[in-house]
Amino acid sequence: MPFIPLSAAPAEGTILDWNAALTRRLRSRGEDAPASTPPALPAAVDVPRIERAFREILLAIGENPDRDGLRDTPRRVAKAYGELFSGLSEDPSRHLATAFEQATQQAVVVSGIEFHSTCEHHFLPFFGKAHVAYLPSSDRVVGLSKLARTVDVFARRPQLQERLTEQICDALEEHLAPRGICVVLEAEHLCMRLRGAKKPGAVTRTLGVRGHYRRDGDARREVMSLMDIRQA
Ligand SMILES: [Zn+2]
Questions:
Q1: CATH number, domain 20-40+93-225
Q2: What are the domain boundaries of the chain?
Q3: Does the annotation mark 95 as catalytic?
């Protein structure tokens, strides 16, 4: 089966083979602001509580939270957490519920979606690229930026890379009921770079496959060849 790859890589993502006509139609119907725009919902974190807690952490590591450079740090950290964990108060259906009809039976591949998340074991960042592909069913497709926003909703939570991969698959399955799903995440974990194993540059890849791409190895290899997966 021939594939029409659609690449809507936000920011510095790599653009693969671009099907301009189909992309223009998708854009005219479903696209909104660029995927790199921060989520619109306000962060639902308890800022004063994080401030108090972080002041305790500063004391616990032997710092003086009242010295000049640190005085406003608990507040800054609390606000940063509001952004980093905004996905906890956001429902991914907000982005995927507005599927629209488009006469295509071909795979949709969005490659190089940059994401940043937080390892829930060490509360240190992990970050990298997500590559998302699905094979539409009943002509139901979704705006390309919505895929990137869906990745963001789940990434902006305390996470495990394995669970993040599965949650993206689950959301696509629930809202688009596609015939196949293939999601590849590749990320570097600062908890591996800075502590423990201390292995800078190590890339962790996780793969989520459903439906047609699980059953058909050739189709899976073909769709993965359209993803701009970093070579180790
Ligand atoms: Zn970790």
A1: 3.30.1130.10
A2: 20-40+93-225, 47-84
A3: no
Distance 203 CA to ligand 1 centre (A): 13
Residue 189 falls in the annotated catalytic set? yes
**Residue 123 CA, ligand 1 centroid: distance in Å:** 7
Would the pTM count as exceeding 0.85? Answer: no
**Rounded (10°) angle between helices 47-60 and 73-84:** 120
Q: How far is the CA of 131 from the centre of ligand 1 (A)?
A: 22
- Of 9, 22, 46, 6, which Cα lies nearest the Cα of 151? 9
What pLDDT tens digit does each residue of the chain (232 aa) get?
Answer: 333 344 333 333 322 222 233 334 334 444 443 344 444 444 589 999 999 999 999 999 999 999 999 999 999 999 999 999 999 999 888 888 877 777 777 899 999 999 999 999 999 999 999 999 999 987 778 888 899 999 999 999 999 999 999 999 999 999 999 999 999 999 999 998 888 777 778 899 999 999 999 999 999 999 999 997 876 5
**Environment class of residue 184 by beta-carbon count within 10 Å: exposed (0-12), middle (13-18) or buried (19+)?**
buried
